[in-house]
Amino acid sequence: MSVGSLGAGSGMDLESLVKKMVSAQRDAKVKLYQDKLNGYEAELSALGKVGSAIDSFKSSVDTLNDETLFTGRDAKIAQAEGEEVISISTDNTASNGSYAIDVNQLAKGSRVMSAPGLFSSADDVITQKDADLTFQAGDNEFTINVKAGTTLSELRNQINTSEDNFGVSANLVDDGNGNLFFTATSAIEGSGNSLKIINSSPITNEAETLNEDSLEEVVADDIEEPEEIAEAEVDELDLPGDDVDFANDGPIPEDEVDEVEEDPVEASAEEITDRSVDNDLAEDNVAADGVNTGLTLDSISTEGVFAGLYTPLGDEARDAVITVDGIQIRNSSNTFDEAVAGLSIEALDVTDKTTRVDISYDQKTVKEAIEEFISSYNELLDLFQASTDKGAVLNGNSMIRNLQSSLSTQLMSSHGKTTGTFTSIFDLGVKMDNTGRLSLNSTKFNSAMDRGYSDIAPLIAGEDGLAKSLENLLDNYTGSGGMTNTLKDSVRDSIDNTEETLEAYEDRMARYEESLREKFTGLDSRLANMNAQGGYLNSVLAKM
Hints:
With 544 residues, this protein is α+β, with helices and mostly antiparallel strands. It has three domains: 156 residues, no CATH class; 77 residues, no CATH class; 201 residues, no CATH class. Strands 1-15-3-11-12 form a five-stranded antiparallel β-sheet, with no helix packed on it. Strands 7-8-4-10 form a four-stranded antiparallel β-sheet, covered by helices on one side. Strand 16 and strand 17 form a beta hairpin. Helix 1 runs antiparallel to helix 5, helix 1 packs antiparallel against helix 10 and helix 6 runs antiparallel to helix 9. 25% of the residues are buried.
């Protein structure tokens, strides 16, 4: 409203008079509009809550309407909590039944290490020239370029931070007795995947000056030619990579290596060469401060005549081995995805006794889905009741009344096969009290599961099942074109129309106030003139 100084000329309180006249016309009507808007806003909020509850209930119905819910499998493993030896996940293709499972061996990666005395300090320089060092484990491989002057410590960091590293971890270990060990572990599991480290640089050790003739001559003096090499005894039932004889036919010989057996003469020559190299390193390549400066990259290799690393016994990469119903199964990792159809078996620890596993229909998940359905239905029912009580904003709302009646009818109707074990959800232990709320009798439900599990899916998720019928019903109320959103859109339109009407009325009241001010301004001016004339006349009369 405009603020003026009406009445200044006449001396009358015309400002208050205008405000009271406008208020008498405006306030009551504006309050009616505002109350109407508040009612629409409350109705819109209530419909929003109802819509959310319907959507939540439909979500639980959609869960029940999935036939795979009733074809799932559950694995019960006879093992104590905290002492798990296997973990099993199932899919719908798993066969119901029992399995006897043993974990005979866990898969592991490999480890290589240096011999005692090879390294004296983390500052030992391991190469005097640029070269490549390649790491291999099975089909995995990466290569790093080692610069001249690289120390043992720097090499360790270079290996561990390589972007191509497939799981090799290098470390330096000091035993406290003057021995520094370089170790490298590989995460690649499975027999035949032991870590190999290969130096690609040409041999520079002075031992390379030994030619074949001199080596053979030295060997001939020290080694007698064996008369006959006895053929190694082979256990035909053993598999490469085993630590234990699972066929129970006696001790297992060590796993065979897939390489041609070395000639005794060549092997002896390599030993002599290695000893020569070690002696040279020990005597000639150690500086005054104890740092070895004459090493070559062969000292970090597992391959070749001058290799400085070896794989300790028992640190070779190996397979996991389990036995299922007497059948031994081998795998390169501890997870067996294809051993038994429909099962994924993860070996966690070696067993000392057979573990029993029972595979059956996943009744627990079905029960949880039905319990969620019941809980969501009861929440929807409670909201309907609170929203339509006497004095509530949605009291008498036809949409809610019709939906509540339709839901009750669907629950009470027969579904599924008429010749089946069950004809309604109440045959499964579901109960309805006199207020319409649902509950589940667990004893009756478990009995129904055992009595006719195969008939439950058609009853609930079949073409004529309860969930399908409820889903079709709720589709009319949910979604952008559903009845709930249509009703909310109608309320929003009413809000918009009321606000426009209120705004137009406020404009009329502004014009009405403006006209009053014009009229009272003229009146005030005339009264001021009359007062002035009256004053003049009074002064004239006073002089007569």
